[in-house]
Design brief:
alpha+beta; 8 strands; globular; 179 residues
Length: 179
C-alpha cells in the first residue's frame, strides 16, 4: 500500500470515494452529505488548516482520511480533528483504515501537532489510540448529538490535559447538523 498527501490532483476521486462509501453504509442522503463536506473541505480550507492522507493499491484509491484544524482561543497547543475517514467498500476489513490513520497521526506527530481528536466509534478508533474525552476538557465547536463519540489523544509525550476554549473549526465543519 502506498500513502500520498497529494489531494488536489485527486480531489474528484476522493469526493467520489466518500460519496460511494457513505452511500453504501448509511444511504444516499448521507453519501451526498459527506461527499459535499469533503468537496468543501478540499476546495475551501487553507492548506495550513488541512491534511489529507490517501491510501493506494495498484493505482486504485482504497482509502482517505482528512484532518482539519481546531483553534482554541485560550490555548497555544495545535489541535487537528480527524474527519471524515473512508475505506472503499470492497477494501474494508483489510486493515487499510487503521494503517492510514496511523500513518496520518505519525505525520502530524512529526509536524509538532499536539492533539488529535475525532468524532466517531470509540471501539474502532480506540484501536489507533483515541480515548473518550469530555466536552468540558476538550470543547467541541457545536453541540454533539453523540457525546460518547468525542474522542482524542495526545500526540506528544505529555498527557492529554484540558484545552481552553472557545473553539473554532474550519468553515466546512461550521454546521451544527454535522455534529
Amino acid at each position: 500500500m502506498d500513502f500520498s498527501t497529494d489531494y488536489e490532483t485527486h480531489a474528484e476521486r476522493i469526493v467520489d470515494l466518500f460519496g460511494a462509501t457513505f452511500t453504501a453504509s448509511e444511504g444516499a442522503q448521507e453519501g451526498a452529505l459527506i461527499g459535499d463536506l469533503v468537496r468543501r473541505l478540499i476546495a475551501q480550507t487553507p492548506a495550513e488548516d488541512i491534511r489529507v492522507f490517501t491510501a493506494w493499491e495498484d493505482g486504485a484509491l482504497t482509502g482517505c482520511t482528512l484532518f482539519s484544524r481546531l483553534a482554541y482561543e485560550g490555548d497555544a497547543r495545535t489541535v487537528f480533528m480527524m474527519a471524515p475517514v473512508a475505506v472503499a467498500t470492497e477494501h474494508q476489513g483489510k486493515g487499510i483504515g487503521q494503517q492510514l490513520i496511523t500513518h496520518g497521526l505519525d505525520v502530524l506527530r512529526q509536524e509538532g501537532v499536539d492533539i488529535a481528536v475525532t468524532y466517531g466509534d470509540p471501539a474502532f478508533y480506540g484501536r489507533v489510540g483515541f480515548a473518550p474525552v469530555s466536552e468540558a476538557d476538550l470543547p467541541a465547536p457545536h453541540a454533539l448529538q453523540h457525546p460518547e463519540g468525542w474522542i482524542a489523544q495526545s500526540l506528544t509525550e505529555a498527557p492529554l490535559t484540558p484545552v481552553s476554549g472557545p473553539v473554532r473549526c474550519v468553515d466546512a465543519f461550521n454546521d451544527p447538523a454535522l455534529w
